[in-house]
Design goal:
five-stranded mixed sheet, alpha+beta, Cytochrome p450, globular
Length: 424
Amino acid sequence: MRIPEEIANTIASPKAYGAGKPVDDAFAWLRREAPLAIAEPRGYRPFWVVTRHADILAVERQNDLFHNGDTFTTLTPIEAGEKVKQMTGGSPHLVRSLVQMDNPDHFAYRRLTQAWFMPQNLKQIEARIRDLAKHFVDHMASLGGTCDFARDVAFLYPLRVVMEVIGVPQIDEPRMLRLTQELFGSADPDVNRSKLADLEPADRTREIQATVMDFMTYFNAMTEDRRKNPRNDLASVIANGQIDGKPLGHLEAMSYYIIAATAGHDTTSATTAGTLWALAERPDQFAKIKKNPALIANLIEESIRWVTPVKHFMRSATADAELAGQKIAKGDWMMLCYPSGNRDEAVFDRPFDFDVERAPNKQLAFGYGAHVCLGQHLARMEMRILWEELMPRLESVELAGEPKNTDANFVCGPKTVPIRYRMQ
């Protein structure tokens, strides 16, 4: 079955994700009428749209059958894809991080830093993360009862945590934030490099490449420093790491830094901002957390489900296959739609309600299987500690304007959350 053109265009549109409801409505229609079907939005080659929770997990479980790295890992217009291949000499990837890898490379590169992100090792930095959370809660209290929670707190706290883990000095954090927003928000004139809307795909690709090059220039200098002066930080692990007895390739090393420095904070920032947006609109849910702080763990999982900051990843079939009764041909491109899976009526009761008491909560925003998010434990810890520090002091909160999401179809969340509040 071919997906109607209007629906296909919606699920590819950065503006639809920014608006929220159009893409939610499109995915709800697809789950009901065409849960696994082919879309061909304007300017894109055809791809399968995987919208149901069970089917997304089925693809994620079969990493040998459904690859990340054989073609574009994110939804890429034809024109942009051709531009990328011109820039790279034929590769579909401007960067080659864990996201663009399949085994055996994926396993080898993931193992290099995996221990850093395990719960037992994160306990060593928990006290420092709590100090940072207290700092930003105090900062919020100093703002006089109104602020933009996204820009004043949610962007800055996870950024500080991750930059300290990597080893980026505090003075460079604004640069890292700006480059991250340019990379993920290339379609949004409020955050992209040119500050222009409706760029042609090739022009947007050039902007993304310029941002990637700025990241590489920065992290190349950091690599040289850490090889001469290694420290107890992630940058030293990447700079001095080896795969099969050889140093990381330049592209792979730079890509490792980039994914840690961007996805490492932006997704947590988006979820954190989206949490307070949801609570500000729902006094009953806010009151439940105030009354029972033990619900913070539930709040975190529900927030991750609610925001789902990573909107999709693409896979390609390495052989003919069958999924949910459909014949998938070798080489077919597939879009795993995480916001849809996290609103699947077959899995979640009242999926369009934000419910801090939801249990169980089988959200799949971190992915599943071999490619499950490397930083998921750190993200949960950061959010838990922030809410443990903020909620006892936050007496009331309401919206003081219209929150807005970034226009982006790959990674996006709130870009502004104006609030009015009282704190102890």
